[in-house]
């Protein structure tokens, strides 16, 4: 009798534990984080010269293909004309994973500051006029996994500065950079 009861308990206990195991997630992660910086090259439509500078960015992917990105760009013209663009953006991104290559697309909103040259005849020591504008950016690029914790990035972004006189400002910013990829979240 004891052996029969033990066999029946084992019979019901094994499927119950297997069912409980299926109720737990098979793969989970808190997210995927990387923070990086790099070299920026901008082609503004305000002037014919190229602007160069630096870029900082951070990505947090909360799903396998969806996440958010924050960008900072500082690019300036030749040192003699004192023109620069500074942007702060945040937005959503969609990323795919193909081995070591991770292409993505992003939609960004933010704020841009444009520093103008001094007008002709302005007294020396005058402050340079700079104005801030709301901006929107559309971009695409790819992260390349060089090592488990290092990604190299190539990125292009088209920006639209709303209200910039006379017809808006539409710079294109190209970024080449590297990021530290935090693996503790996987």
Keywords summarizing the entry:
1 helix; 8-stranded antiparallel beta barrel; Porin; 186 residues; 12% helix; mainly beta; 8 strands
Layout of secondary structure:
Blueprint: H1 2-23, E1 32-43, E2 51-61, E3 66-76, E4 84-95, E5 101-115, E6 130-145, E7 150-161, E8 172-182
Antiparallel strand pairs: 1-2, 1-8, 2-3, 3-4, 4-5, 5-6, 6-7, 7-8
Descriptive notes:
This protein has 186 residues and is mostly beta strands. The protein has a single domain (35-117, 128-185), classed as Porin (Beta Barrel). 12% of the residues lie in helices and 54% in strands. The protein has one helix and eight strands. An eight-stranded antiparallel β-barrel has the order 1-2-3-4-5-6-7-8. A hairpin with a 4-residue loop joins strand 6 (130-145) and strand 7 (150-161). The longest helix is centred in the first third of the chain and has 22 residues, at 2-23. It is elongated and about 105 Å long. The chain starts with a helix and ends with a strand. The model has no long low-confidence stretch (mean pLDDT 83).
């Amino acid at each position: 009798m004891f052996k029969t009861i033990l066999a029946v308990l084992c019979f019901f206990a094994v499927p119950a534990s297997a069912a409980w195991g299926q109720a737990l997630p098979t793969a989970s992660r808190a997210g995927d984080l990387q923070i990086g910086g790099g070299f920026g090259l901008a082609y503004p439509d305000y002037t014919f010269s190229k602007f160069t500078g630096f870029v900082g960015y951070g990505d947090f992917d909360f799903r396998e293909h969806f996440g958010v990105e924050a960008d900072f760009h500082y690019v300036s013209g030749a040192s003699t004309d004192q023109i620069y663009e500074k942007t702060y953006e945040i937005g959503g991104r969609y990323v795919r994973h193909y081995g070591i290559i991770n292409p993505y697309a992003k939609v960004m909103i933010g704020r841009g500051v444009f520093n103008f040259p001094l007008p002709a005849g302005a007294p020396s020591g005058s402050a340079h006029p700079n104005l801030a504008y709301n901006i929107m950016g559309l971009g695409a690029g790819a992260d390349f996994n060089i090592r488990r914790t290092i990604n190299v990035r190539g990125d292009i972004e088209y920006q639209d500065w709303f209200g910039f006189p006379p017809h808006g400002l539409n710079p294109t910013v190209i970024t080449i950079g590297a990021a530290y990829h935090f693996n503790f979240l996987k």
